[in-house]
Amino acid sequence: MNTVPEITLNNGVRIPQLGFGTYQVASEATKDATLTALEIGYRHIDTAQMYGNEKQVGQAVRESGIARGDVFVTSKLNNGLHAYDDAMRAFDRTLRDMGLDYLDLFLIHWPMSADGTFVEAWKALSDIYRSGRVKAIGVSNFQPHHLRRLFEESAIVPAVNQIEVHPYLAQEHVRAYGARHGIATQAWSPIARGKILDDPEIARIAERLGRSTAQVALRWHVQRGDIIFPKSATRTRLEENFDLFSFELTAEDIEMIATLDRDERTGPHPDHFGHVP
């Protein structure tokens, strides 16, 4: 089993740098896929209220035979639930659905700029954090101006910002802003939903190293310090994604991949993603 590095968050909590993502994994397949990931060696599972599979993730964690303290579990607040009482009830429902006593990380999923209520949601998350029912709190899809608003309203700095990042969308300015404030970057869509798998430059590196293009892209994330959680429902791909720590990219490889950045998103821009009921 490869040893997955851990990153220490700004409150001292340690998070495995590689995890298993469950976005778009069908609810009926989630339990088995999560159990397979845990069997392979993954110890970081990422889900969300929006995904509709929290219950199955919780079942897998509970039935895996692995001590709860050895599995890092993340979920996210659903859009439209930013009002304080709504956020508090939503968190309670997540714990109940997952059958867990606590979460390791809970995030505001989107800032929902159209209504700007993420500040109220952050107050709820802060109170949940103080209660001890979550080990760390953070945000997802936040731009620097969203983070500045939180800094003005709260003394608790997000532990992570989960944003879309991949070789075609390096997000250097958001990552750098977060780093200056002690906020770790988590990268969703780390292989651009498959778009980078046929990239000729990444393919040349992969051929030289005897690796897949996905492994090269994921290794790029690892070496720049991103926390990643690629998703798959197949064992072979889960094993391939896990095998990132027996090879390294050269400085020249990293520089070349950096030239691929073209500010190309696979998802919406956070400033244009408004309120969803």
Explain what this protein looks like in three dimensions.
The protein has 277 residues and is an alpha/beta fold. The chain is built from ten helices and ten strands. It has an eight-stranded parallel sheet with strand order 3-4-5-6-7-8-9-10. Helix 1 packs parallel to helix 2, helix 1 packs across helix 9 and helix 7 crosses helix 8. The longest helix has 15 residues.
Number of helices: 10
Span from first to last CA?
43 Å
The strand count comes to 10
Helix content: 25-40%
Estimated share of beta-strand residues: 15-25%
Briefly note the structural class of the backbone.
Answer: alpha/beta
Strand arrangement in the largest pleated sheet: 3-4-5-6-7-8-9-10
Question: Sheet with the most strands?
Answer: 8 strands, parallel
Quaternary structure state of the chains depicted: single chain
CA radius of gyration: 18 Å
- Mean of residue pLDDT values: 95
Low-confidence stretches: none
Structural shape: globular
Order of helices and strands: EEEHEHEHEHEHEHEHHEHH
